[in-house]
Known about the structure:
three-stranded parallel β-sheet; alpha/beta; Rossmann fold
Amino acid sequence: MTKMKNVNVFVDVDLTLVDAQQVIRPGATTAMQVLFDSGCHLFLWSTGGGPYCRQIAERYGIAHLFEAFLPKPDIYIDDMPATIFNGLVFDPAGDEDWVTLATRIVREHVHQGERPAPAGSQGPMICILEDDPARVARFRAVAARIAPDATLRIWPDAHRMLSQLPDCLDCVVLMSLDHDLHPAQADAADPGSGYDVAKVLGELIPCCPIIIHTSNGERGTWMEGELSRAGWKYARVHPFADEWIEKEWAALVERFLRASA
């Protein structure tokens, strides 16, 4: 499938970005960030007009992601009328949630050259979802010892990870996912969970092994189900022993990296 450069994405407002009560739909904010981070040019339009579009975008803190706020046209005047409706059309009210849809659009239709390359992304990458600073420091120490050539990307927030993950999929060699995440501050936004990430990965083509390192037994099993359904290679490590990162997790990382070498 041919991927596009300089991609313009027009997003509807009512019943697409927001529901009938003008409440933003689940995952829509993260989805807009995913498309923006991939290099897409975003335009918000509606039959309600440009000021209405801007009002909705500002209400939910995403106005900076859009290049313009426009009314939907009623009449087209064009010397090539066949080109007006030759684009791809996606409906987030269908079977896919917003984040899964946006991630698939980027992966299948946006040329890689459009994406701003993250720092240090030229070599192999290990991507980790973890919000505990003490664990993060230990992950870094172990990775530096057993995978010194790999770049480590660590996110404490599932939504932020999903917004940046499309830029990493071409070079990631391993992922490791916690489930339970906690806001950095009491009034901070919900950081999501490892299951949110697993659900999106369950819609993608597997590209690397995954370690699930959560103590939440039930939700860890849910994550396994999503990954297994899509054919991802994965393993569980239970974070209970004092040195589980230095021993059990490190052993899994070494095993997976050797297998993919």
